[in-house]
Amino acid sequence: MIIRNSAKAVIVKNDKILALKMHENNNTYYILPGGGQEHGENLHQALKRECQEEIGADVEIGELIFVREYIGKNHELAAYHAHAHQMEFMFLCHVYQDTFDNGNNPDKGQTGAEWIPIKDLLEYKLFPQALRSHLISYFDSGKATTYLGDIN
What we know:
InterPro entries: NUDIX_hydrolase-like_dom_sf (IPR015797), NUDIX_hydrolase_dom (IPR000086). The chain is α/β, with parallel strands linked by helices.
């Protein structure tokens, strides 16, 4: 079984975080921009490519702020994700534009991107949901635990 690496962008501007708005199976939820690392790419290259594909934007990549592990057999979608084991590296990023369209290769179910106020994150279905409190803590205090473990 293969462990997959993924790079995610934590894009913040004016106390808001940019999230992809998803709609699947009559359910709306949000995720961070980013995705799987391809063979031969480093994490920064993967993140730049994914942000072009999903939000059509160039990102300036900053520090690594969180590492999340996802072991599918341990979570509510185990029937579908039992085989999945993914490491997600979340980087603080900056963009110079304020509005976004779907990029040149959006995710299945992606309907756009939306700025979410950090103080209101707990009111949104942002996945992984356990990440919301870590983001709020990080932006309130400027520090947080980097390795989040196997959270969902």
